[in-house]
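Module 6 notes. Inverse folding takes a fixed backbone as the condition and produces residue identities as the prediction. Think of it as a translation problem where the source language is geometry and the target language is the twenty amino acids. Below is one complete input and output pair. Work through it position by position during the lab.
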């Protein structure tokens, strides 16, 4: 019988046996937040599928997904659920140390929400100081290079961003019945009062910029950045497969890393 790769499906005896091989442990985390009027808020569902496919191919063990993330910039959109940074820190720290307590030392985050990244970095440095263990992390949605995006959408510099790609196409591929194409809207950016903005929270200062701490509802009232007309299921399949492919490559590199290194070594 093949070893299970989903921790939630294992008995404790099966987990005990699997842990003897010191496998890579994938700790996935994502968010529930707006992705434009047409795309479901539960982007964590896409991350779950990526994590499970990576584990199935590599023999890593995948922990259950933390579906909530730090999504403060989207709080004003109904359906968004955001945790405080300290809540995510505490949960991720506790999850990782539970694995370390059983002698495992190859624990990595699969971060499916960029807003979680600074928090995970803090967890990783704290673990290194306390336990002498180097953690890993990969962001699957940051594995789509500009060249790859141009190839997928058959145009140079396709306009994508939060509220459009990659989640619009991946959702059409995975959850077509949940996507409301009838509600799709064009990008709708606004200035902040009489102050023009570059990006979603930056004031242009010559060839550099300064920051205003705004949220998306201030600047992009409908939550759409990019070209919603790009979305299609075929592109979504390619985007998903690419994230899985490079996630597998990362795991195979990470499992060769000498993770037990004291803080002062």
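Target side of the pair, the amino acids:
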């Amino acid at each position: 019988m093949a070893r299970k790769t989903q921790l939630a499906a294992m008995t404790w005896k099966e987990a005990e046996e699997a842990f003897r091989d010191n496998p890579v442990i994938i700790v996935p985390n994502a968010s529930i937040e707006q992705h434009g009027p047409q795309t479901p808020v539960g982007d964590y569902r896409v991350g779950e599928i990526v994590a499970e496919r990576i584990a199935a191919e590599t023999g890593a063990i995948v922990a259950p997904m933390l579906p909530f993330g730090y999504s403060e910039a989207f709080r004003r959109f109904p359906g968004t659920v955001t945790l405080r940074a300290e809540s995510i820190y505490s949960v991720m720290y506790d999850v990782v140390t539970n694995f370390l307590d059983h002698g495992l030392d190859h624990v990595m985050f699969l971060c499916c929400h960029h807003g979680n990244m600074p928090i995970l970095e803090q967890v990783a440095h704290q673990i290194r100081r306390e336990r002498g263990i180097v953690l890993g992390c990969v962001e699957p949605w940051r594995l789509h290079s500009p060249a790859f995006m141009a190839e997928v959408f058959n145009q140079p510099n396709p306009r994508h961003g939060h509220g459009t790609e990659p989640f619009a196409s991946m959702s059409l591929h995975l959850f077509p019945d949940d996507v409301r194409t009838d509600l799709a809207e064009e990008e709708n950016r606004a200035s902040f009062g009489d102050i023009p903005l570059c990006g979603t929270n930056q004031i242009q200062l010559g060839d550099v910029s300064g920051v205003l701490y705004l949220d998306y509802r201030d600047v992009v009232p409908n939550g759409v950045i990019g070209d919603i007309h790009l979305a299609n299921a075929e592109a979504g399949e390619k985007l998903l497969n690419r994230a899985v492919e490079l996630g597998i490559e990362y795991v195979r590199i990470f499992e060769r890393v000498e993770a037990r290194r004291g803080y002062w070594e």
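Reference fact for the lab report: The chain has a mean pLDDT of 96.
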